[in-house]
């Protein structure tokens, strides 16, 4: 039954799972996040492989986000926007504020059921509410939080016209450099919807980075089990067969208007992109006895980033920045 | 003590009571204490790798390879953790060791790195006068389900005692077995401190696995495509290569080192040019996630006469492969809880 393979509530519940996993990492010392605990009712300790995996995802995301926030500052393109699709209970905005890196505008979108819960937590936690500033309004019923630099809004991402409306309601400036995030979001949608979102994003934002983190390789033994297991909990990976490999993830962007795109699997990301010192630090946190599975898990996830560079500020943005290595870039120009 | 009744109980998915488990553990320790660090075993015998709490797959293993005592077995450790039925797996293996129609030599249980308090530990957090158990490894903890079923009856002390009885048995499990003097079976691998098999005999094994040294290495090391030794990413044991293995086999007049410890997708994997080492893995679709095949490796009586390794013909050894049981395949409950990055 298509309904039981993929249902809205189960997909939304992946947010709760991810939040609990992030809290598990934080409690073990993998990363700092002073706010995620506000969103998790029952703290759970995850296995070391899950902790390390969430850390690697967070580290890659933060490193690319930092590059984005630094890009073009010399040329006074300092006003930056961040758009988080399917943001769930993510706390990046509040952490960035603490780090003194709060962007000009941070917009989070998700289903109303999720944004309502988030709005409620924000309303009831002074540590979050106080960071919004003077001109803020919170509506739990509407699932909406509005403030000068942070906006939380409800939308079904599959509805492109509504997506357009909500972006302009949020006062996003499409000409400003924008970092768009989709972490395990598009993969749950049908392929037409995920393509449409990628396409819309490219048409809308001319100087932008799209950060995608999601699964690949449904066809091998591990991938096959992953598909079965996720289907059995109602969050089938509806888009995975449309983009099952790294080149296919790159094509998803290149074929939908993005200028360049690079996809690396998480094994490579962890091995070659995450800072060595950070890896040494976290590898000491727990006894880790799951190497074969670690390889398998990480090989079935990837980070793909796509770039539109109308302002010409993303010249050296990416995985190999500063490494001296020639970038293995797929671009719209090459076959 | 009614062994047959206990065996039926466990096969039916019930746990032994705290008292029954205590008695079982006491009796098995008396048998295990007699075993040598390098326990001699005669062929024919079937060697098995990690089970990791996959009880229904263990039943399938016996269907595939034959039941005790019709078939003799060596289990190379890692009976517990990860799978949902660690306690049942450990209990049934102890019951088979003790079986009334079974001679202790029919089944040999080696220690693996998971037969350790450190990896199966629970931590206890006093909470205003009452003890509340905080599971350190959540669903990985072998006592998660035992606790769920016992909590209502007797509460946390029962679980603590059960854990203590079992981890005490771990300290008695032997380190290795040697089949007909020519095949060494050990959970992990080799140690730079162990050049001869006699050096294994010198180890005092009646304790928790140390953090380093020969005992630790035998439980934690891995073969690698190198020549000699390298630091292991596991943080315990070593990586050891082809030259070291060939020398070890030569010095000790072995044909083969048989070990487990590492998941192999194909169930069985020979290492090195001379195939002097093989990894056997007996947990199919490990953790409901890996989609791998499992295997068991049998040595028949004829191996004694074979001085050369006939790998192509495989006449003296026979591999059997098996997949997860239909039961495991259909189990919706565990499938929905399998962890991924979401």
UniProtKB/TrEMBL annotation, chain A:
Q: Name one GO molecular function term.
A: protein C-terminal leucine carboxyl O-methyltransferase activity
Its GO CC terms? cytoplasm; membrane
Pfam families, per the entry? LCM (PF04072)
Name the catalysed reactions. Answer: [phosphatase 2A protein]-C-terminal L-leucine + S-adenosyl-L-methionine = [phosphatase 2A protein]-C-terminal L-leucine methyl ester + S-adenosyl-L-homocysteine
- Per its UniProt entry, which superkingdom is the organism in? Eukaryota
Family, according to the entry, reads as follows:
Belongs to the methyltransferase superfamily. LCMT family.
Q: What is this protein called?
A: Leucine carboxyl methyltransferase 1 homolog
- Say which species the protein is native to: Brassica carinata
Ranked from the top, the taxonomy reads: Eukaryota, Viridiplantae, Streptophyta, Embryophyta, Tracheophyta
UniProtKB/TrEMBL annotation, chain B:
Which species expresses this protein natively?
A: Brassica carinata (Ethiopian mustard)
Q: What protein name applies here?
A: Serine/threonine-protein phosphatase
User: Which GO-annotated molecular functions does the record name?
Assistant: metal ion binding; protein serine/threonine phosphatase activity
Q: PROSITE patterns of this UniProt entry?
A: SER_THR_PHOSPHATASE
The answer, when asked if Hydrolase is one of the entry's keywords, is yes
Q: In which family does this protein belong, per the annotation?
A: Belongs to the PPP phosphatase family.
Q: Which CDD domains match?
A: MPP_PP2A_PP4_PP6 (cd07415)
SMART domains in UniProt: PP2Ac
Instruction: Give the enzyme's EC designation.
Output: 3.1.3.16
Q: Known PANTHER family for this protein?
A: SERINE/THREONINE-PROTEIN PHOSPHATASE PP2A-RELATED (PTHR45619)
| Domain Serine/threonine specific protein phosphatases: from-to ranges | 110-115
Alphabetically list the UniProt keywords.
Hydrolase, Manganese, Metal-binding
Asked whether the UniProt record includes Manganese among its keywords, one would answer yes
The UniProt entry, under Pfam families, shows:
Metallophos (PF00149)
Task: Please give the catalytic activity noted in the UniProt record.
Answer: O-phospho-L-threonyl-[protein] + H2O = L-threonyl-[protein] + phosphate
Coiled coil residues, start to end: none
């Amino acid at each position: 039954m298509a309904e039981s393979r993929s249902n809205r509530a189960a997909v939304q519940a992946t947010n709760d799972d991810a939040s609990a996993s992030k809290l598990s990492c934080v409690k073990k010392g993998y990363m700092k996040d002073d706010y995620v605990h506000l969103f998790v009712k029952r703290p759970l300790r995850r296995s070391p492989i899950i902790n390390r995996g969430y850390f690697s995802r967070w580290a890659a995301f933060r490193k690319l986000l930092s590059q984005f926030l630094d890009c073009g500052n010399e040329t006074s393109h300092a006003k930056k926007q961040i758009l988080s699709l399917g943001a769930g209970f993510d706390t990046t905005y509040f952490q960035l504020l603490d780090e003194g890196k709060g962007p000009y505008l941070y917009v989070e979108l998700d289903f109303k059921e999720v944004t309502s819960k988030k709005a409620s937590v924000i309303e009831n936690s002074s540590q979050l509410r106080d960071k919004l500033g003077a001109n803020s309004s919170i509506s739990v019923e509407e699932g909406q939080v509005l403030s000068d630099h942070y906006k939380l809004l409800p939308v079904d991402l599959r509805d492109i016209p509504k997506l357009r409306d909500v972006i302009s309601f949020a006062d996003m400036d499409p000409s400003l450099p924008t970092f768009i995030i989709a972490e395990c979001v598009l993969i749950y949608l049908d392929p037409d919807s995920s393509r449409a979102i990628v396409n819309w994003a490219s048409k809308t934002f001319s100087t932008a980075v799209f950060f995608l983190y999601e699964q690949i390789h449904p066809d091998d033994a591990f991938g096959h089990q992953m598909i079965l297991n996720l289907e059995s909990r109602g969050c089938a990976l509806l888009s995975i067969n449309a983009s099952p490999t790294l080149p296919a993830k790159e094509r998803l962007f290149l074929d939908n208007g993005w200028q360049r795109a690079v996809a690396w699997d998480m094994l490579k990301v962890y091995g070659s992109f995450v800072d060595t010192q950070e890896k040494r630090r976290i590898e000491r946190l727990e006894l880790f006895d799951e190497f074969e599975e670690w390889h398998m898990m990480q090989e079935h996830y990837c980070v793909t980033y796509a770039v539109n560079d109308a302002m010409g500020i993303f010249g050296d943005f990416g995985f190999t920045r500063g490494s001296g290595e020639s970038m293995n870039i797929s671009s719209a120009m090459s076959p | 003590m009614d062994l047959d009744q206990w065996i039926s109980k466990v096969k039916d998915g019930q746990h032994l009571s705290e008292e029954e488990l205590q008695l079982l553990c006491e009796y098995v320790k008396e048998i295990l204490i007699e075993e040598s660090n390098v326990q001699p075993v005669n062929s024919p015998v079937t060697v098995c790798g990690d089970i990791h709490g996959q009880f229904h797959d263990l039943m399938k293993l016996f269907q595939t390879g034959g039941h005790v005592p019709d078939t003799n077995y060596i289990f190379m450790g890692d009976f517990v953790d990860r799978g949902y039925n660690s306690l049942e797996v450990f209990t049934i293996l102890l019951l088979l060791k003790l079986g009334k129609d079974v001679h202790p030599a029919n089944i040999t249980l080696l220690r693996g790195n998971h037969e350790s308090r450190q990896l199966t530990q629970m931590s206890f957090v006093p909470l205003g006068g009452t003890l509340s158990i905080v599971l350190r490894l959540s669903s990985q903890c072998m006592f998660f389900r035992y606790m769920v079923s016992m909590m209502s009856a007797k509460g946390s002390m029962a679980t603590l005692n059960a854990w203590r009885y079992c981890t005490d048995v771990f300290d008695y499990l032997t380190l290795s077995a040697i089949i007909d003097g020519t095949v060494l079976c050990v959970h992990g691998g080799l140690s730079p401190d162990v050049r001869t098999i006699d050096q294994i005999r010198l180890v005092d094994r009646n304790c928790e696995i140390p953090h380093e040294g020969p005992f630790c290495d035998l439980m934690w090391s891995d073969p690698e495509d190198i020549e000699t030794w390298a630091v292991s990413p596991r943080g315990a044991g070593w990586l050891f290569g082809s030259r070291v293995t060939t020398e070890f086999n030569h010095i000790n007049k072995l044909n083969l080192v048989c070990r487990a410890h590492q998941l192999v997708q194909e169930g069985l994997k020979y290492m090195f040019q001379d195939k002097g080492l093989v990894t056997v893995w007996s947990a199919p679709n490990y953790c409901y996630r890996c989609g791998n095949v499992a295997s068991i490796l049998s040595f028949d009586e004829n191996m004694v006469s074979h001085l050369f390794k006939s790998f192509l013909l495989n006449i003296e050894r026979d591999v059997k492969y098996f997949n997860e049981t239909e039961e495991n395949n259909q189990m919706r409950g565990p499938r929905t809880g399998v962890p991924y990055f979401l």
